Amino acid sequence: MKKIMSAILAAAALISCTDNDPKILILYYSQTGATEAVAKEIHNQTGADMLRFDVAQVYDGDFDATIQRCLQEQARGFVPTLNPIDADLSEYDVIFLGYPIWFGTYAPPVKALISSVDLSGKKIVPFCTFGSGGLEASVKVLAANLENCTVAPGFGIRKARVQYAAEELDRFLIESGYKEGTLEPLEPYSESREMTEEEVAIYHEAVDSYPIPIGEPVSVASRPVTGGTDYAFAARSADPEGNVRENMVYVITREGRSPEFTRVNR
Ligand SMILES: Cc1cc2nc3c(=O)[nH]c(=O)nc-3n(C[C@H](O)[C@H](O)[C@H](O)COP(=O)(O)O)c2cc1C
After folding, report:
1. Which residue owns the Cα nearest ligand 1 atom 23?
2. Torsion of CA 118, 122, 125, 127, to 10 degrees
3. Rounded to whole angstroms, how far apart are CA atoms 170 and 110?
4. Which residues contact 139 (CB under 8 A, 6 or more apart)?
5. CA-CA distance, 136 to 130, in Å (whole number)?
6. Mean pLDDT of all residues in the chain?
7. Ligand 1: which residue has its CA nearest to atom 2?
8. Among 123, 131, 175, 221, which residue has the fewest nearby CB atoms (within 10 Å)?
9. What is the DSSP letter of 193?
10. In what order do the strands lie in the sheet with 228-238?
11. Which of 122, 52, 46 is nearest to 91 (CA)?
């Protein structure tokens, strides 16, 4: 009798779990492993199913070869062909969609995915890795191209900082309701103000080793966090046509670590 009761309770728990909890799939493309590392960490922290997708014409060259190939493909409007997806997507309510940023937005394999599978009605939670940034722009393009989906603001991390994905995902997943846990609330950033010499030095220590110029800082906002400070610098740079633009460049300091450039908002 006891055995039957526990079997009934287990079945009831299973039913209530499938009834209430959205079914999540982590679906990602990764060329060099950074996005894959983030996908695996989301899987570790949520237990959600995970699947890598790819295209028939694999991008297996080095960085320069991939850049050249993409430029040629963009010039002729080529969209690669998606390899068949080994999952029944209709079973899932939420798709964590992972990709590297290429040319300021999601890599072409994501184009292949969204042009050949039906994601309508699903909640899409983008996550990406990048050299310097591109989360916001890629999410905007995704939302425009997936009108029948709800596209969440998403998660992004620089490839150079992927070792911190676990701690940053912990906050992201709790805040967005995909994981249980408590968080220390974050203070809002201060008003934007003039920088001190020390802050200018922190900016340069964080960004100057990045191979592409990130811009010159003109003002800063900051907030204290446990073990350090978060900075949001407004930085000016000129595009190849000479137009001046301003981007937010995020830098953090943490006890025992050098200042880190976490992303540029674009
Ligand atoms: C063709 C190509 C274009 C890229 N364009 C950008 C870019 O516009 N902005 C950026 O921050 N990083 C850019 N990157 C860097 C990748 O986003 C970064 O290395 C990413 O973490 C790679 O992810 P993966 O290891 O999952 O393939 C580019 C990389 C490649 C190969």
Report:
1. 100
2. -10
3. 25
4. 126, 151, 153, 154
5. 12
6. 93
7. 102
8. 175
9. B
10. 216-225, 228-238, 244-254, 260-265
11. 122
What residue's CA is closest to ligand 1, atom 30?
102
Q: Whose CA is nearest to atom 16 of ligand 1?
A: 130
- Rounded to whole angstroms, the Cα distance separating 94 from 100 reads 20
On whether the CB atoms of residues 18 and 87 are closer than 8 A, the answer is no
The whole-number pLDDT of residue 228 equals 97
Name residue 114's amino acid.
I
Question: Containing H/E element for 127?
Answer: strand 123-130
Cβ–Cβ < 8 Å for 34, 12: no
pLDDT in tens, 142-197: 999 999 999 999 999 999 999 999 999 999 999 999 999 999 999 999 999 999 99
Pocket-testing residue among 42, 73, 101, ligand 1, by greatest number of atoms within 8 A of Cβ: 101
Residue type at position 164 = Y
Tokens of 95: 């798709």
Residue nearest to atom 1 of ligand 1 (CA): 67
- Please work out whether the CB of residue 29 comes within 6 Å of at least one atom of ligand 1: no
Q: How many whole angstroms separate alpha carbon 255 and alpha carbon 245? A: 32
pLDDT at 12: 41
Pair 190, 230: CB distance under 8 Å: no
Residue 249: what are its φ and ψ, rounded to 5°? Answer: -120, 120
Q: Evaluate: CB of 33 within 6 angstroms of ligand 1.
A: yes
- How far does the centroid of ligand 1 lie from the alpha carbon of residue 111, in Å? 15
The rounded distance, in Å, linking the Cα atoms of 125 and 139 is: 9
Q: How many residues can be counted in the chain?
A: 266
* Ligand 1 and 127: CB distance under 6 A: no
Report how far ligand 1's centroid is from the alpha carbon of 156 (Å).
12
Closest CA to 31 of 109, 132, 144: 109
